[in-house]
């Protein structure tokens, strides 16, 4: 699996549609200060489901939409698509190529797509569990992140090891099953209460 392309439109400093093609090996993005290099990394985080505006260096989610310049009016939406080669089926879907897209409008309305089909954020998160690529993965190392990991709480560091060991999806499924059991237990208590009222 590898990153094939990234298409950005209306996201942060990228008003026009821009299509980055990546090839095997190392790709460097160079440019003067403030030219938008870090915005490319932010676009990758965002399309993979980042929900925290702070992680994207903004104060709210609408901050990712191109806010205009002296010569250009603000845009009404931001859109990012990322395409990964999945010939080795590391991502648990049948497709040989996986494109994840996210779009947000100034009204706050937003949508995710998986290979062109509308889907939930949860669907996107699930295909990236244990691949190191998801929002909590380690494939994007931001400025200052190494220091944060080294000086962070052991519980937080453990999450990285869990992801690398491939057990995150099982932990998430266990948590969902435990929650369902608790809900069912609460339902049973209610049913018993009603039964004893009727007797
Ligand atoms: P440095 O080398 O200093 O780290 P950089 O090349 O990584 O800089 P970025 O931080 O990616 O630059 O981009 C910052 C630029 O993005 C600023 O000029 C900022 O005005 C612009 N920018 C951020 N959000 C928006 C937005 N919503 N609309 C328009 N421009 C934006």
From TrEMBL:
Protein name: Chromosome partition protein Smc
Family statement: Belongs to the SMC family.
Subunit structure: Homodimer.
Signal sequence, start to end: none
Residues involved in ATP binding: 32-39
Function text: Required for chromosome condensation and partitioning.
Highest rank taxon of the organism: Bacteria
Subcellular location: Cytoplasm
Comment field on protein domains: Contains large globular domains required for ATP hydrolysis at each terminus and a third globular domain forming a flexible hinge near the middle of the molecule. These domains are separated by coiled-coil structures.
């Amino acid at each position: 699996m590898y990153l094939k392309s990234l298409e950005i439109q209306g996201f942060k400093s990228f008003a026009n549609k821009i299509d980055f093609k990546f090839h095997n090996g190392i790709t460097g993005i160079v440019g003067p200060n403030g030219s938008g290099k870090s915005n490319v990394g932010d676009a990758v985080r965002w399309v993979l489901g980042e929900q925290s505006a702070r992680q994207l260096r903004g104060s709210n989610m609408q901050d990712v939409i191109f806010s205009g310049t002296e010569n250009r009016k603000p845009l009404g939406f931001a859109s990012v698509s990322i395409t990964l080669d999945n010939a080795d089926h590391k991502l648990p879907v049948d497709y040989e190529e996986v494109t994840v897209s996210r779009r947000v409008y100034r009204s706050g309305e937003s949508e995710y797509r998986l290979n062109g089909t509308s889907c939930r954020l949860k669907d996107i998160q699930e295909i990236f569990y244990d691949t190191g690529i998801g929002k909590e993965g380690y494939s994007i190392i931001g400025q200052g992140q190494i220091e944060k990991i080294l000086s962070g709480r052991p519980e937080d560091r453990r999450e990285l090891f869990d992801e690398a060991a491939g057990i995150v999806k099982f932990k998430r499924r266990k948590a969902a099953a435990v929650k369902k059991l608790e809900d069912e237990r609460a339902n049973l208590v209610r049913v018993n209460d009603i039964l004893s009222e009727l007797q």
